[in-house]
Amino acid sequence: MIRVTVWNEYLHEKNEPAVAAVYPRGIHNAIADFLNEDANIKAGTATLEEPEHGLTQEVLDNTDVLIWWGHMGHARVSDEIVERVYQRVLNGMGLICLHSAHFSKIFKRITGTRCSLRWRDIHENERIWTIDPTHPIAQGVPPYFELEQEEMYGERFDIPTPDELIFLGWFRGGELFRSGITYRRGFGKIFYFQPGHEMYGNFYNENVQKIIRNAVYWAKSTFTCEPYFNGDAVPPPNAFVNEIDLEPHKEYGKR
Amino acid sequence: MIRVTVWNEYLHEKNEPAVAAVYPRGIHNAIADFLNEDANIKAGTATLEEPEHGLTQEVLDNTDVLIWWGHMGHARVSDEIVERVYQRVLNGMGLICLHSAHFSKIFKRITGTRCSLRWRDIHENERIWTIDPTHPIAQGVPPYFELEQEEMYGERFDIPTPDELIFLGWFRGGELFRSGITYRRGFGKIFYFQPGHEMYGNFYNENVQKIIRNAVYWAKSTFTCEPYFNGDAVPPPNAFVNEIDLEPHKEYGKR
Amino acid sequence: MIRVTVWNEYLHEKNEPAVAAVYPRGIHNAIADFLNEDANIKAGTATLEEPEHGLTQEVLDNTDVLIWWGHMGHARVSDEIVERVYQRVLNGMGLICLHSAHFSKIFKRITGTRCSLRWRDIHENERIWTIDPTHPIAQGVPPYFELEQEEMYGERFDIPTPDELIFLGWFRGGELFRSGITYRRGFGKIFYFQPGHEMYGNFYNENVQKIIRNAVYWAKSTFTCEPYFNGDAVPPPNAFVNEIDLEPHKEYGKR
Amino acid sequence: MIRVTVWNEYLHEKNEPAVAAVYPRGIHNAIADFLNEDANIKAGTATLEEPEHGLTQEVLDNTDVLIWWGHMGHARVSDEIVERVYQRVLNGMGLICLHSAHFSKIFKRITGTRCSLRWRDIHENERIWTIDPTHPIAQGVPPYFELEQEEMYGERFDIPTPDELIFLGWFRGGELFRSGITYRRGFGKIFYFQPGHEMYGNFYNENVQKIIRNAVYWAKSTFTCEPYFNGDAVPPPNAFVNEIDLEPHKEYGKR
């Protein structure tokens, strides 16, 4: 069972009828709903205006993969909660940042860059191309698929070179974008995926859902942390080199 | 069920009693045996002196992951069989190259380099360090583990920059090595792992076994090839841009 | 002084008046001409139908960077010459493959993949985006530039993950492409650049010229090979560990 | 002319006679001195206890490459100055972090990770291996070189996968380390290099000096920023697709 928490700032849907018409119960529930159709996933939700943004330490400790959607409310996310999320990622929680979460505090913290890009919102169509079809996140995804309308996000996307480039997005107006990319930080795996403007309903798209579902499986940590965190002080010089005795050890440790 | 074929040149064991004492039924059977303890894996074997080196088209078509061990017999492997294996890798078969398979025809074909390295065989001890503990191949592997004796393989290993660097090996005599690395070629995933000299019995080591088993799971293809191979001619310009009509199409295709 | 050899199959220009009208003295001379405007570069040419394709050992030994343009004549390039070029690349000669050289024997040898792609030739326009503006090859290149007409090359380009992704190409008809990428093999640096169809005169484009010129500077080897090739037998265990004496050294070496 | 500023916390040298004996004028001057022997480099210094740590906006604006050495004083570096340095890196200043600067605020900000590692200080010897001899930073550096004494830094080094792995360090006691690595952030290039403990005088080592000097050349920005920063608002849909007119443009921009 993979425990997912879908976080959404949940502001557009409450304040803009046009958005509410697309996602009546909010983007977070739209995502949690299709994830919960998978018997191996149990997805809950959390939003900005809940106490602690819904991200208490207990919630995070019981989350394998956190999904993040934010836009107009980035600045309202408290630095303390961002730090808490960041530490959980370093300790192995997966993180999936969607669409305008490219500009969230947590994504900037993880990338160490500005994460700036070009954008244009004219109901433009996008074609997403699969660049790495062998990647687990691309499992079952066709060589390309279309989104009839999406906000254009264009290069240069100011990010570190991704660990993996899985999808590239083509926009009709002349731009393109590294639309599906991965990073590792600490023991955590991170996936950024570009589609998901609040107006266009692309979280109902079959391929978008497939990709997010695949990313949940991929981002769930597979390693056993304990030896890395406990009882793993640096050893004295190895047993085979015990003749090293130049001077009494001054000090050794792990930080 | 993952269908594995373990290929071994099977020469040392037949001609050198000291090696036969370590691997009485050959390296291939030692590997197949521990893999077959996993209920999800069905491992068979193939060797150099069988007809077609045991690698008929039918065998390869029914192999999800091929494991390769070779050393003194590299030059005896026929170019035709190497081409057959290569094409299967491009079409999605996983490949795991062990130890002196760094110098095999198939590994050189895949890397496009000389794959040269330093070596020294003095019963030296090795410590293998886990560099990427989040990688599925490192699942359950400790921060480091020891091999009491192994042949030293040292840098500079003349290979392309690996897609992923999972393990580094430290040798007592002063050398180190990129001991666990991955590549993708076509639709196939490749893992190279350095331990496994014919004299030292390290295929009985618990961590070596764990790593090879993890690599089998990782290398098995997860994608659906069909749309990439059939009915996937390049489209005419996309439906949203059908106003393109500068000139009659001269030609288009896919190669 | 950087010594460049521009190799061109030189077939289209000799047989198709429409191509000859674009490149009257051949693509090779068009490229050599603009390179020779740089006082630090001395560019010569070589073509398919010359003896040894113009690529004698002496020519290659006196070439710092080889530029390759081929298309309809790939199969006519002799395997022996390809091997000779390949060995020079491994020993430090830079290599720049242009446009349909994606399918040349030398590029496939270096990548270890099929190098297949989608293509369409309808006088389509392309926009090239600079993804890594800090790369020396992108020096002075704007965030994007236009080519009014170019042959469409589209993903999935079946190549290994590039060491560096510098440019992405957007095509009006709905496709995109990793248009400027690098690899290292042995001691050689390789750059692939997608523009340059024989019909469209893009080797006269100011930005295309700037990129190829930058790539010449970048691909020229900066390292001193000698210690890697001569007198660099693997050492006995290091001086600080000379107490290693478990057994007489059986053997050591370098391959 | 490359303008370098060498920053050093300059605490050990002022408070510990044993360190002062090694670096009488401080580590910063030891580094600036050998850099200033190069006619193309002009190196100044700055230290923690100067006003603004010696890193005024004017100093940074006139610095092409900043070198950073810190250890016991990491926490005393003001967040405001770190932010100032960080912004300059994003805008194109090179950054070279040495030894215990792995734990500096600026390096953690750039990597987005904990940057933890193992360490042991027993006058242990280190062998540094050149993994990427084609890299400009490795120009003239032998296949390996020895440091008679250095503080051991061992894996797992908790960092993002480097853009380039140039050097690996072997330590006698059984550890190894990714000793020379690069990153890009924004328009800035970053090099981390592991040697340089305050006690061991390795900044006088010929190869260490060569590597730092090479890194200065490499880290100096080569690109022309202006088109990226000024007059580079996202364009309206491109001229070739001006028939796009589905709806009036709602908005477009660049962030």
Account of the protein in words:
The structure is a homotetramer of 255-residue chains. The model of chain A is unreliable at 229-252 (pLDDT under 50). Chain A has a 9-stranded mixed β-sheet. Chain A has helices spanning 12-15, 17-22, 26-36, 57-61, 79-90, 105-111, 206-219, 226-229, and strands at 2-8, 41-47, 65-69, 94-98, 118-130, 144-154, 164-171, 176-185, 188-193, 251-254. In chain A, strand 7 (164-171) and strand 8 (176-185) form a beta hairpin. Chain A contains 8 helices and 10 strands. Chain A is an alpha/beta fold. Chains in contact: A-B, A-C, A-D, B-C, B-D, C-D. Chains B and C meet through helix 6, strand 5, strand 8 and strand 10 of B and helix 6, strand 5, strand 8 and strand 10 of C.
Note the topology.
The structure is a homotetramer of 255-residue chains.
Chain A: E1 2-8, H1 12-15, H2 17-22, H3 26-36, E2 41-47, H4 57-61, E3 65-69, H5 79-90, E4 94-98, H6 105-111, E5 118-130, E6 144-154, E7 164-171, E8 176-185, E9 188-193, H7 206-219, H8 226-229, E10 251-254
Helix pairs in contact in A: 5-6
